[in-house]
What does this fold into?
Amino acid sequence: MGAARLFFSLLLFLISIVVGAFCVKIWMKHNSAQKHLHQNLPSGVSASLKYGDIRTTAIFLFLANNLVTTVASNIAMMIVQDIFKIIPPALLRRFKIPLPDSTATLPHQAVAMLFSTICFIVAAAFHTKFVFVRSGTVDVHQGGAALPTSAIQATLDQLGILLRYRDVSYIRASAELPWPAVFFAVGATVATFVGWFKSRRAPLSLPAAEESVTESVEVVEKSSELGEKLYV
It folds into this structure.
């Protein structure tokens, strides 16, 4: 199952990089949109974009994404090291660095993948729901009096500021891309658990093999003793 784990881990790592970039972009674009809005408002009018909910879910998605990416990348590096020996084992032994073994640590890999995948699915689910259900708001004031959003709608349209999250391309992408990553995360988790169970079953055949060897030795010894008696 090493090839399957490597395949799922690498694809998960690649997609997760893009997901993390979109989460960061949500924060950066909000700050730049707020700045441009202030610069283009009529005199005496102030406005504040309220994207707090989507920014909060983006933070949790970013953290969960980084967690599952870290686990997957470490698994991939151990498998690659086992296969290609990129770092010579002699060099690792010289500096007293433990040799990475992708098989010996399968239980830890399985638990880490399961935990990080669950966190990632929960964060992606909340973020996706917020993106496709909710919208941002704008607090508009003039001289201490609150104004409706329609008072600056022309300015919002001119700057291309959209309030519905699903209408903003990069926010929508941040909700759609995590699900292919979830698929690969689940695949990596399943492959890791299967590899773990196979590695647990493999040693079970050793005692049987030892018993058969012992029985063979005993048969040979008895045969030799019988031969000696007949010879005498």
Q: What stands out?
A: The longest strand covers residues 45-50. The beta strands are 45-50, 137-142, 145-147. Residues 2-207 form one domain. The chain has one domain: 2-207.
